[in-house]
Design brief:
304 residues, alpha+beta, Phosphorylase Kinase, domain 1, 2 domains, 5-stranded antiparallel sheet, 10 helices, 13% strand, globular
């Protein structure tokens, strides 16, 4: 059984190659069960976008999770990062299959998502600050030097994202110009130039948000589903600050300072990465109903 969200997103994003991955998935899972002596321990988890994730039991009856990913630039380095983390702030990687990209990993129990967790005695704004502190503290721990590991994928470089944005916004389409405007397009190109020379690089995370942090017994909170890039510390703040500014109760300078301090990163570089994420969202991802709200949230960050 493949969750409908996974099937839909894989087909929508990857077309025929996604269909081929879905068609091969039963054989892939069957082969991995034999190789790793696994048995299913429940239905697959809902809510993913392009991975099949299911609870299993290992040969010694210990609980685990089997994850088979549709590999792309964003997630190809996940096993590499988990191997490097060694369970410090993230779920532990037990085994990795280079042929399929599949991973056998720790099952976080109870697995409640930080985004939906309520903290006793905390009203909404105070609870949001606590979630921000937990999340940035974890991502700060996870940033570390990167060394290639034999048998594991190399990490994509965040500078590749900058190159893509610089090229696109330097010669924008009519639709990008309509959505962003000439001034923001020029500013996006300038930010790409400013961020190209990072002060340091290590294992950063692209998809930093509160849904990818869950409660556990070994540690109170663990990161799942990392999207590692070779990047500076401030890179982690790009997506995280974007989502908090766009959808959270806090905004502006106070939010920027909380995120930058939590990550141990330069606030202006965190801001620049977040504004590039805003530009990308407005130019390509936001539907027409979101454009005004996204532009307003971006302006609040620009003024921070």
């Amino acid at each position: 059984m493949v969750p409908s969200s996974v099937r839909r997103d894989v087909l929508n994003w990857h077309g025929e190659s996604g269909r081929a991955w879905l068609d091969d998935l039963p054989r892939t899972v069957w082969s991995l069960k034999r190789t790793w002596s696994l048995r299913m321990d429940g239905p697959p988890y809902d809510g993913g976008s392009h991975s099949y994730v299911v609870p299993v039991r290992r040969e010694d009856d210990s609980p685990a999770v089997l994850k088979v990913i549709y590999r792309d630039d964003e997630n190809i380095g996940e096993p590499t990062a988990l191997h490097r983390y060694q369970g410090d702030g993230a779920v532990e990687l037990f085994d990795f299959d280079p042929e399929t990209g599949a991973m056998l990993m720790e099952r976080a129990v109870p697995g409640n998502r930080l985004k939906s967790t309520r903290f006793f005695g905390h009203k909404t704004p105070a609870a949001a600050w606590r979630r921000i502190g937990i999340a940035t503290g974890l991502y700060r721990r996870l940033w570390r030097p990167y060394e290639p590991v034999e048998g594991y994928p190399e990490l994509p470089a965040a500078t590749g994202m900058l190159d893509g944005w610089r090229a696109a916004y330097g010669e924008p389409t009519a639709e990008e110009r309509r959505r962003l405007g000439d001034e923001r397009l020029r500013e996006a190109v300038a930010r790409c130039e400013d961020l190209a020379d990072a002060p340091e690089t290590g294992i950063g995370n692209r998809d930093t948000h509160l849904t990818n942090i869950v409660s556990a017994e070994r540690e109170s909170w663990l990161v799942i589903d990392p999207k590692p890039y070779l990047a500076e510390r401030a890179f982690d703040g790009g997506y995280f600050l974007f989502t908090q500014e766009m959808y959270g109760p806090h905004s502006g300078r106070e939010l920027l300072r909380a995120v930058a301090d939590g990550l141990g990163a330069d606030a202006e570089r965190v801001k620049a990465w977040a504004l590039l994420r805003f530009a990308d969202f407005i130019a390509h991802d936001a539907d027409e109903r979101e454009l005004d709200a996204a532009s307003k949230a971006m302006r609040e960050l620009e003024d921070a």
